[in-house]
Amino acid sequence: MNPLIATALTLSLAASAHAGGEPTKHNIVDTAVAAGQFETLAAALGAAGLVDTLKGDGPFTVFAPTDEAFAKIPQSTLESLLQPKNRDRLANILKYHIVAGRVFAADAINASSAPALQKDRLDFGIRGGSLRVNDA
After folding, report:
1. Across the beta sheet with 121-127, what order do the strands follow?
2. For 79-98, how does the pLDDT look when each residue is reduced to its tens digit (9 = 90+)?
3. Residue 100 contacts by C-beta under 8 Å, 6 or more apart in sequence?
4. 14 confidence band (pLDDT: 50, 70, 90)
5. Which of 7, 14, 40, 111 could form a disulfide with 69 if both were Cys (CB 3.0 to 4.6 A apart)?
6. What are the chain's domains?
7. What is the DSSP string of 9-51?
């Protein structure tokens, strides 16, 4: 199993109102940066060339590894993945954590799986009262 999915939470496109009362859409990248616990993910998305994709037409759901999850990966491995020569490999790993469309917990439980942008399927289930993604 991919080590990045070990600690995951879901970020979806969110809408909020600005001063004029009109809703404004915040994309996943902006939401992740604002949360403060996805700095490594934001850097990885940039290194993989996926920022424009996730800022584009959505919605997307990202089963987003936190900085704590990235800390479980050996530093040398992470540094290697962030190098330009490994851009495609990193993009493939990150796409494994992204689903086109909104996937809420209730939907995931009922759907049992969803296709990742990387083309593999993410399997959903319940264990110990918690939603699991590929048993993580």
Report:
1. 113-115, 121-127, 130-133
2. 999 999 999 999 999 998 88
3. 58, 59, 60, 115, 117
4. very low
5. 7
6. 3-104 (2.30.180.10)
7. EEEE-EEEE-TTS-EEEE-HHHHHHHHSS-HHHHHHHHHTT-H
